[in-house]
Amino acid sequence: MAAGTTPVAVGVAAIGPLDARAGRLLGPPNVGPGYRDLDLATPLQRRFDLPLYLERDTNVAALGERAFGAARGVDDFVYLTISTGVGGAIVSHGRLFLGATGFAGELGHIPVALDGPACGCGGVGHFEALSSGTGIARAAREAGLTPPAGAGVLTAAGVAGAERAGDARAAAVMTRARQAFAAAVVGIVNAFNPRLIVVGGGVARAEGDRLFGPAREAIAAQALAPAAAAVELVPAALGDDVSLVGCLPLVNGGGQPIAAALDRVS
Ligand SMILES: [Zn+2]
Fold first, then answer.
1. Contacts of 50 (CB under 8 A, 6+ apart)
2. Are the C-beta atoms of 54 and 14 separated by less than 8 Å?
3. pLDDT above 90 (res 30)
4. Could you give the CA distance from residue 62 to residue 79 in angstroms, rounded to a whole number?
């Protein structure tokens, strides 16, 4: 923190699903039982006598991209991150679209393939199961690929490298990941009529136009024409610290303070 500044609020970007108003993580997959129904509000309350804000990391990232990044000045857009998993956020009329109970925007769990594979959430054929780094690596292992020399585990980057080196099995896995991404963004364009789809995350950054190109073609060819004409698919601008950056707009009008914690203060 810079000298001479006084903190006025605490913003927390955390993995979902979570209850933003109660300040609790509910049961995020893949991180173990210690995070299930975890109360973040009480320990933060003890440490900081300040307004507290909690929101899903991808929602905070969307606020960050809107305030400082690729979606500056844009009121209607969708944010996606393609990394270990696939996360999302929807901004409508300049506000986070939260849904009836705060879970809206879990766009990685859009079904794109009726025949699988299994998704970490328990669903089948979800966008995340096919296009995430975890999904790419798993599909490649099932296709018989092994880690590159010197690497202990097979990662999405390893699969992409094998594709560039001419491995047909790796190419098939990466092609399916791109097709799943393209199908998902066509659905997103039709469902939300966004001005932008901003895509961040390590897999998207590494793949660049190899991922974006086929998806742009799919939007032009398959999405409903008025919605397709309105949208641009663009890379995120803020990199891995996007959720940290997004905590500023989160506490500055973009989010709701944790109600339970505030009630205990008063
Ligand atoms: Zn899923």
1. 7, 8, 9, 10
2. yes
3. no
4. 6
| Residues facing residue 24 across a β-bridge | 19, 39
Note if the pTM is more than 0.90.
Answer: yes
pLDDT digits (tens, 9 = 90+) for 72-127: 999 999 999 999 999 999 999 999 999 998 899 999 999 999 998 999 889 999 99
Ligand 1 centroid from CA 57, angstroms: 17
Give residue-wise pLDDT tens across range 115-130.
989 998 899 999 999 9
Separation of alpha carbons 19 and 116, rounded Å: 30
List residues bridging with 82 in a β-sheet.
86
Contact 247, 13 (CB under 8 A): yes
Domains of the chain: 1-69+239-266 (3.30.420.40), 74-236 (3.30.420.40)
111 C-alpha to ligand 1 centroid (Å): 8
Gap from CA of 5 to ligand 1 centroid (Å):
42
What residue type is 233 in one-letter code? L
| Ligand 1 geometric centre to CA of 21 (Å) | 24
DSSP strands (E only) in the chain? 10-14, 18-19, 24-25, 38-39, 52-56, 77-82, 86-92, 95-96, 196-200, 232-235
**Angstrom distance (rounded) from CA 85 to CA 28:** 12
Buried b (16+ CB within 10 A) or exposed e, 226-263: ebbeebebbbbebeeebbebbbbbbbeebbebbebbee
